[in-house]
Amino acid sequence: MKLITILSLPAVLLLAPLASADLITWGAPQDATAASDVSTNGTLITARNCWASTFAAPTVNGVAFAAFAPSGWTNGGWTLLNGSTSGDVDYDALLDSARATSYGSAGNPTDWGAIQLDTLGTLTMGQTYEIQVWYCDQRPGNGSNFLNDRTMTMSSAVGTGILSGGVITNLGSVTQGPLSAVLEADPNNLSGAGDTILGQFVVGTFTRTSTDSLYLLGQGANPVATATTRPHITALQIREIGGAVGTSFCDPMNPNSTGMSTTLTGSMGTGVGSGLHLEAAQGPSNQFAYFLVGTGVSDPGIVISQGRLCLSVSGGNVFGRYNVPGALNSVGLFDAGGVLQNQVGTSTVGSGFDVPATVPITGSPTISAGSTWHFQLWHREAAGASNFSNGLSVTF
């Protein structure tokens, strides 16, 4: 690969700012049907069952859920399955009850209910987590308030939140994350014998990069315009699915146009392909970037523009660039918070990069167990200049 290929790329169109690191990126909602819905990925941090009638603590798919009443969520509903069953007594117990906020008067749509996640278990800096949230209600309600037609949208926030009755009242003073797609309380509006869909759940991921308070947010809605509702949660669990890996080199890198050095970190077990997921942060907003991979290290590297290339180009070593179709082949853009976003479908978590198994150098070798590869990020700076992150050596 010729370096001029990197340095002569035209600028790309600017994208709207996206979410920052600690915030949750959501997958698609899924129907709740059987106990196997309960994820067993990684290591359990906490599992909570928002039981509202008799405080139950079911164990589902090997995961023990503790009875839980989030602060300010004092309203509750029970017998939510309305006669439906998953065929598993404990999963039925998990889904049969919920908690709702008690803040002020209910609305449609509701205010954002909030649950502070970092108080429920230990979240370690540099670790990546999976969160799974359930929403269920199969009760038909009445003509003015169809309970089984209610919906819930999930989100997250970091910062110092002010909560009243379970609702965050200073939303404009915290940083809110992406919204999930809408979860339905009962997608098929059926209950009782023969019913196979018992509500919905959604799975999200986040990487802990700060000590800021982290909140799960939920906003409810009702298709009947005159009906009222409240944020409503059935259960949740948090699981640690990956940790920081690799040895940094050329660290610290030259400062970029923000005055900080662009940082590159990795976590194993969180990406597709090789299993390695790379995250870049502290970059200049609205500038695009490529991930590089090489067979050797050069430290302190070769000065290029405002940074240093620290992948070796001597002694038989080579390096390559991960080309991704679309958007001028750019891997991502730095958002307003300096986090590199997943622009063209190269990451399962919405930011950073899932390293594929095939290495983009001559011969297209495959990353194998026991092999060591070296990574670095090149990115554009203002006025056509460029810079690099620190390097990261990873043994697979």
Structural description of this entry:
With 396 residues, the chain is mostly beta strands. The protein folds into two domains: 32-242, Jelly Rolls, CATH 2.60.120; 246-395, no CATH class. The protein has two helices and 31 strands. Strands 1, 2, 3, 6, 10, 16, 19, 21, 22 and 28 form a ten-stranded mixed beta sheet that branches. Strands 20, 23, 26, 27, 29, 30 and 31 form a seven-stranded antiparallel beta sheet that branches. Strands 9, 11, 14, 15 and 17 form a five-stranded antiparallel beta sheet that branches. A hairpin with a 2-residue loop joins β12 and β13 (167-168). The longest helix has 7 residues, at 89-95. It starts with a helix and ends with a strand.
Distance between the terminal alpha carbons, to the nearest Å? 24 Å
State the helix count.
2
How would you describe the shape?
Answer: elongated
Q: What would you report as the Rg, rounded to the nearest angstrom?
A: 23 Å
- How many strand units? 31
* Count of the separate structural domains: 2
Biggest pleated sheet: 10 strands, mixed
Helix content: under 10%
Top CATH class of the largest domain: Mainly Beta
